[in-house]
Amino acid sequence: MKDERLQAHNSRARFEQVVLPHLDAAYNLARWLTRNAHDAEGVVQEAYVRAWKFFGSLHGGESRSWLLTIVRHTCYTWRQHNRAHDLTTVFDEAHHSVEDTTANPETLLSQRAHQQTLQQALEALPVAFREIVVLRELEGCRTKRLPP
């Protein structure tokens, strides 16, 4: 009985040490994917419950990536139940064309300086693309190259 309590305490302490420091990153990802602060809080709470449940499966490795993967899957599950229509991506050739010759480097630099413009652009992205930008640029996650 005493050993079980000690083991549970050690497991909880390890969870708090390894997973809790990534709470802000988890919320940030959930906020961008759900587009709502309240929904993001619920998703993160559910993700942490799942992380606790499967904490025994984390052996070494990067706990941040592990947690963000759980948050990501939890967001997609939540979206399927609440906003399935947002998961579809329509590609409009005219809208997504890169043939804009009016943009010079100075114009591009000026556009990047406007944080509001960037936030609006992120909000307008389909979920899958927004997820990639948030993980890579805002959370600093690096991608693994797939074999050719």
What do these coordinates show?
By secondary structure, the chain is mainly α. It has a domain at 2-86: RNA polymerase sigma factor, region 2, helix turn helix motif (Rna Polymerase Sigma Factor, Chain: A, Orthogonal Bundle). It is built from seven helices and no strands. The protein starts with a helix and ends in a 10-residue tail after the last helix. The mean pLDDT is 78.
Topology (elements, then pairings):
Blueprint: H1 2-18, H2 23-34, H3 37-53, H4 63-82, H5 105-112, H6 115-124, H7 127-138
Structural class: mainly alpha
Order of helices and strands: HHHHHHH
Profile the largest sheet. Answer: none
Per CATH, the class of the domain at 2-86 reads Mainly Alpha
User: Helix count?
Assistant: 7
What would the principal axes of the Cα set say about the shape? elongated
| Sequence stretches where pLDDT stays below 50 over 5 or more residues | none
Task: Give a count of the beta strands, DSSP E runs of length 2 or more.
Answer: 0
Q: Write out the CATH superfamily name of the domain at 2-86.
A: RNA polymerase sigma factor, region 2, helix turn helix motif
Distance, first to last CA: 53 Å
Mean of residue pLDDT values: 78
